[in-house]
Amino acid sequence: MRCTVLTALMLASCAPQAPSTPAPPQAVSVHSESAPSAAPSANSSLPPSSVAAPGPLGPMAAWLVDRIHGQESQKDATCWTTVRQMESFYAAMPTTRAAQVLKIESTRTLVYRVWREASRRAGDTPTLGEAALEAALPAPIHPDTPPSPRVARVLLDHQKITENWRAVFSIVTDALAGAGLFERRAVDLRPLSPEAAERLTEASTRISLMVLEAAQAAAVAANHRWIDVPDVQAAYTQTARVLGMPDDLDGPAAAVAPPSDAARAALRALTLQNMERKIASLAAWNKATPEQFNKDVEILNRYGPTPWTEDGARALFEQVQRVAAFTSAGVTPQRSDAELDNLTRGVRPGPTPPERHLTLPWMSNAIEQLFPHRTLNNGDLVVYSRFEVPPEQIIDHNVQLWHSDLECTGAWRAPRGWSTRRRRRWTPSRRS
Length: 432
Description:
The strands form two sheets. The chain has a two-stranded antiparallel sheet with strand order 1-2. A two-stranded antiparallel sheet has the order 3-4. The termini are far apart. It is mainly α. The chain folds into three domains: 15-242, Histone, subunit A, CATH 1.10.20.10; 291-383, no CATH class; 391-432, no CATH class. A hairpin with a 5-residue loop joins strand 1 and strand 2 (381-383). The model is unreliable at 1-43, 339-349 and 399-432 (pLDDT under 50). It has 14 helices and four strands. It has helices at residues 4-12, 58-72, 80-91, 97-122, 130-136, 149-159, 163-177, 194-221, 229-242, 261-285, 293-300, 310-328, 340-345, 360-370; strands spanning 373-375, 381-383, 394-402, 407-415.
């Protein structure tokens, strides 16, 4: 809940006007522009998405936006930190930021491979039904394979959140953008019926837990204090083999036509609608609305010793919105020391063209560069500020650290006027 107010206000200026309400959606197919029937109905005034994205997966994309919102509008709309804490609790050890991103990408790739295999078996069938999908599911993630009591409880908890649905949605958006999983690869997936989509998200949750368990085991075997990138890499390979998937994913690269302007426009509209619905869910859960800004200030004042005035809070939110606009523009490099002027005067075109499709790895790297930070056990962030020190204020000091197990020699540069101590040799005390 800590991220609620900043997230909502940061993205509010990007939310589009609500589209008109379309006809009741039907089962998706290649030859129809209608979408699957909705599952949980959204408890808000937002109408269903009417974005008509091109391609066989286009109608499914709009349905997924509504399906995710339908679930989040009725339950706690969990944020990134909440889900990562759930995973750390399940693994009984922390995970580095890079490993968290890689674990999500590994899960997405495995879900895509399951979906692709089901599509291959279906042949010319326009829509994958529940039976066709289940027939392609490997035994470890098949509904007929009962999980252990511990995994069953965790599955129940994870099914209450929407990360599994967002994994499927991200695969669809990759297909629309011709990026990510579909970089230099034609779309080879069949649309899913609503029942088949439910089954795939359940399989996605199981795959996610399998990758997490394998990564934890790899970290323990390597005597790591936390789960890191090599552990997730080993977990991906192991999980793919357990699921009976070959090591070769891509095969030879092939030239694929870039996405059309209609696909890009639809993807942008879907992204904005997805953001708009997330904001509505967060605001409803925390009883905060744009018409009652004092409620937002009240929530903000819960998390700091210094009270915020309404004017101060508005200034803060405006700054956060500008940072969000800068980050989402996809310009390179995303660095706080190199792009400080851009944050002040707006985004300027640089020599590198902006990214057209912002993926999770790209955005995670951008945020890390703009706001270097670490996450505490309670979910709070410690952000490390970057600032420029004028050259005339810098003096050099040689510092040498001594320890019984570690030696490190380096140079430390400090502004003039900072108090320093004489270098000393230090050794740990020893008991006789």
